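Meet the record:
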Amino acid sequence: MAIHFDAHEVSVAIKQKTRLKTFLKSIFEREGQKLKELQYVFCSDAYLLEMNQQFLQHDTYTDIITFEMSEVPGETVGEIYISIDRVRDNAAKFKVSEEQELHRVIFHGALHLCGYKDKTKKDAALMREKEDECLKLYFVG
């Protein structure tokens, strides 16, 4: 099981990477999912917009795109792309720290790979509840 953090043309500071990786693994364990590999790529708005247009045919900025890449049923292999520009803007918009917003989005991607959706109001409310639970567990203990 491997979790990787990479930056593509952006600067991002992730504190306590080992602790974060352990916590991400625990999300999958709690959700009954087998995690094989997880790749986080931190990038710019422009880069993520291009991916959104190319792969999802969406012409909008977004904070995150999650791809499930597994070829084996029951094993999670994921690629998660996060716009640091969106994270910074959303942190200011929601009046939270950039660190908290970054972790919310990191957990959001993991939760998508665990099967949570966010397209309907009901699904989005459950996703937000799970994100808040993860933030509380991670930052408060």
The first strand starts at residue 2 and ends at 7. Residues 2-139 form a domain with the Collagenase (Catalytic Domain) fold (CATH 3.40.390.30). The chain has one domain: 2-139.
